Amino acid sequence: MERVNDKKTFREALSSLKIKIIDRYIIRKFLGTFFFCLILILIIAVVFDFAEKIDNFMEREAPWRAVVFDYYLNFIPYFGTLFAPLFVFISVIFFTSRMAVNTEIIAILNSGMSFRRMMWPYFLSATVIASLIFVLTNFVIPKANLVRMDFEDKYYKPQGRKLHVGNIHRQVSKNVYVYLDQYSATYYRGNKFTIEEFDDDGKLVSKLSAATALWDTATSKWKMLNYVQRDIIGNDEIITKGTEIDTTLNITPEDFSRDPAFVGTMNFMELEDYISLLKLQGSDELKVFQIERHKRYSTPFSVFILSLIGVALSSRKIRGGIGMNIGIGLALSFSYILFQQFASQFSIKGDLSPLLAMWIPNLIYIVIAGVLYKLAPK
Questions:
Q1: CB-based burial label for 186 (10 Å; 0-12, 13-18, 19+)
Q2: In the chain, domain spans
């Protein structure tokens, strides 16, 4: 008897999730308002960006075809996904507040539909948007960013790489470490270059020191000038000196002079592989790439949280009408972005885990969503 009742309850639950007329109405409102707001802000962003950069484009004689197809066609998806969660929130608050003012929410709840069931079309719409953001940020926008950044380097600003860096420590392979006192990206030259190799017990096996290390573009190898090689075999130490020697390392000049925006040019698989390499090298840039990885998961997930907050906040008629709801919504959405930026900086410059840094805003706003959900009209 209990099994029959369980099957009946399960069937009723599935039946209640079938798309109804009111669901189609809410989905159409949600997606329609979201894409309308997003297109509107993208047009404004493109106009302002073009007005700011037109002098540079003309001064450097940028081809108009490249301006349109290489820059703005790739600028639009980047800017759109960057602010998509914000406009999800604003869109939900805007059209749900309109529904509340027109007593549509009251009519829906009075018809026998629960508030939880009313959330179903909102979450379906949020799934569409979150999936779109995930696919774009992990597989489409990285390639677009590469083209856009190449255009900027040619026609808007000089290449953004660091010309001089110092005090570099890297682990290039198992038990092999590299130290570089100063490196110049202009001349592909480093000073006081040291390579140390240890055994599994942590004892020094060999050490190569050179006054200068030069990257040979023809052979793609590092050339050590005025070097001293120490090899330790048991209790014996063999010292070799010379003026020049070639060596192959799992590290290139690009690893010392990458533009900080380079992280945005990697797709999902490339980012995972590069993080593994940075872990091996012991790079100081590791946290930046880990933050990017977790951000690509946390941002799509935030769409669901912000949608729930938006519905719970705007489904009740309040004094002040739509304007009051939109004002509260803007304050909450901008505080979300602020939390995210602060958390990422605490992680990069402090001891906060990149995983925790990118999920702290979501965890905080899940609590806010739960409180607002309890206060929402049932």
A1: exposed
A2: 2-157+292-375, 164-255
